[in-house]
Amino acid sequence: xxxxxxxxxxxxxxxxxxxxxxxxxxxxxxxxxxxxxxxxxxxxxxxxxxxxxxxxxxxxxxxxxxxxxxxxxxxxxxxxxxxxxxxxxxxxxxxxxxxxxxxxxxxxxxxxxxxxxxxxxxxxxxxxxxxxxxxxxxxxxxxxxxxxxxxxxxxxxxxxxxxxxxxxxxxxxxxxxxxxxxxxxxxxxxxxxxxxxxxxxxxxxxxxxxxxxxxxxxxxxxxxxxxxxxxxxxxxxxxxxxxxxxxxxxxxxxxxxxxxxxxxxxxxxxxxxxxxxxxxxxx
Length: 283
Description:
Elements: E1 2-4, H1 12-23, E2 31-35, E3 51-54, H2 55-65, H3 71-84, H4 87-92, E4 94-95, H5 105-108, H6 113-125, E5 129-130, H7 155-164, H8 178-194, E6 202-208, E7 212-219, E8 222-229, E9 234-239, H9 242-245, E10 251-255, E11 260-261, E12 267-272, E13 276-282
Parallel strand pairs: 1-2, 2-3, 3-4, 4-5
Antiparallel strand pairs: 6-7, 7-8, 8-13, 9-12, 10-11, 10-13
């Protein structure tokens, strides 16, 4: 398919024509547009884009991580997108936290590795397609908008690629701090791909506080639970929707901790350490 730059500045009849031409090449092909200055919903109407670069998601996530908004306001913004964007097109839209037109998320959170990882967990578990801006997976630290957010990889990384290009194998363990980010992103990709619930599953807000947000995902007989915390250690009350209770799921922690979680009551207390995210998946 195609990703269209500044799609919101194209006349809608032009977008309709582009989409018809792309679909003529095959029903599975997609047209995703960059929509920065306007709310994405109007560009996802019938006949227009199949998805947007979700700058609304990026903006509210950055605001939450930097304490410009609190957990309840962040939750309202996520819920608004979930309710107002056509479901199939929300699932096709790109979840972004850094791009060529924004500061990197690691820069936004003042190079706090823990907070970058919390933001990435949200990126990979909220409805949509996680799209990683080059360098985030290596912990690239310089990333201020309009100054160095488009810099190339660190010289050490460039040398490492040169060193291992003949074998095709990168010995990440020898690249100091970059290994922790690379391993983290590899694990998140595994979490995402190992459970179909994150690709098209329903979204249920489950509660939170000023520094936390929790939600469930559900697809057919599968479910998952995600909780993130940008602040200090916290215990919060979560609400379990009927759709999850009916599954009577036993979930195992696949990121952020150990053990299992069984949501068996409509309201439950849940403890989460500070600057952390936890993901539980059924099965």
